[in-house]
Design a protein that fits this description.
The structure is a homodimer of 430-residue chains. Chain A is of the alpha/beta class and 430 residues long. Chain A has three domains: 150 residues, 3-Layer(aba) Sandwich (Rossmann fold), CATH 3.40.50; 204 residues, Rossmann fold; 27 residues, no CATH class. In chain A, 47% of the residues lie in helices and 17% in strands. Chain A is globular and about 85 Å long. At the A-B interface, helix 5, strand 3, helix 10, helix 14 and strand 13 of A face helix 5, strand 3, helix 10, helix 14 and strand 13 of B. Strand 14 of chain A pairs parallel with strand 13 of chain B. Chains A, B: This is Histidinol dehydrogenase. Chains A, B: Pfam families: Histidinol_dh. Chains A, B: Catalyzes the sequential NAD-dependent oxidations of L-histidinol to L-histidinaldehyde and then to L-histidine. Chains A, B: It catalyses: L-histidinol + 2 NAD(+) + H2O = L-histidine + 2 NADH + 3 H(+).
């Protein structure tokens, strides 16, 4: 891996390079996606089945569209029992963490008869998109469904493209069923997003769509935003390890590669105050790359977006981490909790040498759907908050309104909104 | 006002009519907006000053661009002292309400050395857009700045187009200063959004942009979303009054008109179980329209999007309110709190006959930036939550990781991510 001495110029160049991976550059497919969405809006199920025939090579009918209880049962027979056990253990942890995010409606009342509050209501219907294709990620199914379930969403509707055999990949079905999905439909791509956003004969419109997907799915989600809510559009995965001389180079190297293997656009960065660590990590990376099964992807990702950055002191290292605002941040320093207090921007923060990033991907409990590409400066991990919405509550007595009615009328009059002023005045007219 | 007996067909037609007001229909100005944004990105301040000359007819220079302390002082001399007092009283209430929304970072630890948590961090820089033009809304300035301030945002940066005299409207400056703004710049339109999103020589890039604006501003916000965060794009204002025979028709009529006066696209709807109330409200509306100063706007808005809907029972009335998911919902029934428990979708809920909607616009404390056009099904009022972001915290001891390391490796292997498995395995190699 390349080792770079941190300077302002270097940093600016690296930040610019990382931004090239932004998911905001898909313009050229927009027309295709809009056409698919319009067709689904108009022709509903019929359009879905045609696209599934065309893109997935499978004939789906109204009868075979929704996954049946029997298909779910069958899926269980095809998944390794030990893996089901691991999934169940992960679910316990993921649920426990997300249950701590649950918020309550609150109110505050005063003896003059005023009550103000905030009502929390779960979304009614949520759509979860699960990609098909080669890579099957049951962990992603869990991470998208469980927070919705914990929030109290009435119906969780999953869509995923069927395989050539017209079935959903067994492990996907098992994970979805264990997490508590309510409905599963065999449709993928932009057409699935259209179905969830507008509704068809078989699929009722949802309030929000979450889950990862290819560029067509991402563009479709962006297009229907406002009509329904969506989660943020995820970019390629990232890890930044912030380490001093106390870090174990072998662990750091292994953790960098765990993200580099995701895809060629993934980014793995070490920021360290120790030149010695920098060299050792670079050597360890070279050793691992030789033996790992996805070495080709790893090498490409490291060449394009991998860096070992040597900072002059911890302050500069921390500033750099805050500017990059990585999806995953590992802190491997003498006192990781102290370092953490200085971190402003990161999706998930892993503290100390035994908090390896993949622990968060699968098992610890926090969500692995995280802000990428610098958006940790303003976006948050997927959470129960994404599946609720708030309503303000205002209740005033005559007595309480009377005390302030003139002030409100004056304010409204200053804004030249006389009907606003009138609505208050009419309650105190003689 | 037209009185309509509720049927499924009527309801479907009304819902479709209301959706026509959606802010998602601005396509034709997109190219213009993108051109402005590109120009600002490239030419920074120079582009801003050129657009201000062109659109606002004012010569702004680097020296006069940022509002000075002297200009703020001068603004105070031009605003009615009583109005400043009213603004200060409103700020006390708005702050008190939003302070109740503040959330804390939390963690949960176990004796085996695991710690999981959620860290709350305020956004660093927030941009608040304030429209210029004829309508001056100091209340909007307060509602956008105060939650950011309460959240702990470091720098709140306001932009607003200057008047012909090269100055910012005094009441806007006074409201912004009282609410705690840090920087104010004289620039409006899509160019202001570009400046906030990309940064210029004078304005440093922000993390999030909030505040209302015309279609150019709305489109620009949509275009920069992802690069920075934005609040939701607001559509025209709405009120829905849910009333039974106990409601006072004069109050209901006045409240309906308080929203109808906003603009010709505003919507005012009464849903009631009482035919008698329906008729009386219609008469009262006719009476008020004759005497109110904005009667022309009101009449147009009522003709296009105003309805008095008569439901066969309260259940049907509540279902309709939930389907419309109004920005403002007034409940004027025998037992408004009981009715409120049955409400699923609304931006702000006003209970009882003294909780008139304008009370929430100015004074009570809850935010008046609310989800419109049915989006209360999944969006929330502007709140402190909009100005913070979360990071997950994960800290595991060797002991704790050892207990589960095999499970994680198995999960990673099932997903064919061997570098993920390796990063855990390497910590327990002999």
């Amino acid at each position: 891996m390349r080792i770079v001495k941190l300077t302002e110029t270097e940093k600016a160049g690296i930040l610019e390079n990382l931004l090239k991976r932004s998911p905001n550059q898909y313009g050229k497919f927009e027309a295709t996606v809009n056409e698919i969405l319009e067709n689904v809006k108009k022709n509903k199920d019929k359009a879905l089945f045609e696209y599934t025939k065309k893109f997935d090579g499978v004939d789906i009918t109204t009868k075979t569209f929704r996954v049946t209880k029997e298909e779910i049962k069958e899926a269980y027979t095809k998944v390794d029992e030990h893996l089901i056990e691991v999934i169940r253990k992960a679910i316990v942890n993921i649920k426990a963490y997300h249950e701590k995010q649950v918020r309550y409606s609150w109110f505050d009342s005063k003896p003059d008869g005023t009550l103000l509050g905030q009502k929390i209501t779960a979304l009614e219907r949520v759509g979860v998109y699960v990609p098909g294709g080669k890579a099957v990620y049951p962990s992603s199914v869990l991470m998208n469904i469980i927070p919705a379930k914990v929030a109290g969403v009435d119906r969780i509707v999953m869509t995923t493209p069927p395989g050539k055999d017209g079935k959903v990949y067994p492990i996907t079905l098992v994970a979805a069923n264990e997490a508590g999905v309510d409905e599963v439909y065999k449709v993928g791509g932009a057409q699935a997003i259209g179905a969830l956003a507008y509704g068809t004969e078989s699929i009722k419109k949802v309030d929000k769509i979450v889950g990862p997907g290819n560029i067509f799915v991402a563009l479709a989600k962006k297009a229907v935003y406002g009509h329904v809510s969506i989660d943020s559009i995820a970019g390629p995965s990232e890890i930044l390890v912030l380490a001093d001389e106390t870090a174990n180079p072998r662990y750091v190297a292994a953790d960098l590669l765990s993200q580099a293997e995701h895809d060629e656009m993934a980014s793995a960065i070490l920021v360290t105050t120790s030149e010695e660590l920098a060299k050792k990590v670079s050597d360890e990376v070279d050793g691992f790359v030789k033996v790992l099964s996805r070495s080709e992807i790893i090498q490409k990702s490291l060449d394009a977006y991998g860096y070992i950055l040597v900072a002059k002191d911890m302050e500069e290292a921390i500033d750099t981490a805050n500017e990059i605002a990585s999806e995953h941040l590992e802190i491997v320093t003498k006192n990781p909790f102290d370092t953490m207090t200085r971190i402003r921007n990161a999706g998930a923060i892993f503290l100390g040498e035994y908090s390896s990033e993949p622990l968060g991907d699968y098992f610890a409990g926090p969500n692995h759907v995280l802000p990428t590409n610098g958006t940790a400066k303003f976006f948050s991990p997927l959470s129960v908050d994404d599946f609720i919405k708030k309503s303000s509550i205002i209740s005033y007595s005559r007595e309480a309104l009377e005390l302030i009615h003139q002030d409100i009328e004056d304010f409204a009059t200053a804004e030249k909104l006389t009907a606003h002023a009138n609505s208050i005045a009419v309650r105190f007219e003689k």
